[in-house]
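Proteins fold reproducibly. Look at a concrete instance:
___
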Amino acid sequence: MKLNAIMMLMALAATGQAAAKPLVIATDATYPPFEMVDSSGKVGGFEVELAHALCAAMKAECEVINQPWDALLPGLQVRKYDAIMSSMNITDERRQKVDFSKVYYMMQNRFVGRSDKAADFSEDPAHFKGKVIAVQEGTPQDNFITARYGDVASIKRYVNAQSPMLDLQSGRADYTFGNMVQLKVGFLDKEMGKQFEFVGPQFNGTQDKILGEGVAVALRKNNDKLKGEFDAAIDSVKADGTFDKLLKKYQLENLL
């Protein structure tokens, strides 16, 4: 009887430990103001705070960890973490590998080029003959640029989001193309972006599906329970005003 009692206590303790295990959410913290690393090494930003708000709505403890962009999907598939929140657009290609929650915002995209050449810009492919476009590798923006301009332009691809901006600043690229908020906050609003501006029209997934169907939480396939919890939490933080407060805090109103 004593042995059975001890085994039951051990089983209960193990169950309690499992229940206390935090939900681990991965992000690539190179997308200010969505996700970034501060001077103390702490991961923060709009989506990081949103992740914690969603966990609070789910009454779950969570931990947000920083991972390189190209490692996000593989890491999720091998159960290194439970979810991804990193401005990840829903695409058919990604949907073959993972499932997604409902959309929590639509990504707006645009070119950035030199201000003194802005008047000469045209979205016509002929304009890009001999030009260099810097993009983040493996993103819907990369796919969009490759499909439209891959035959006429030289496309330089980088693992992280900051390198295309640095190439533009240094003159090694004529344009970059990406998320408007990321480009504005991470480049145009900074000293290094003073000689540059948005050029051409905005593009999003409603105009061209290749740009994605909206940003959502990425989850492992067939994890219907967790997907349902995230969907309900997204509805909750939008209904109670938390989402709008975060938009205001990070100056994202009218940009998403």
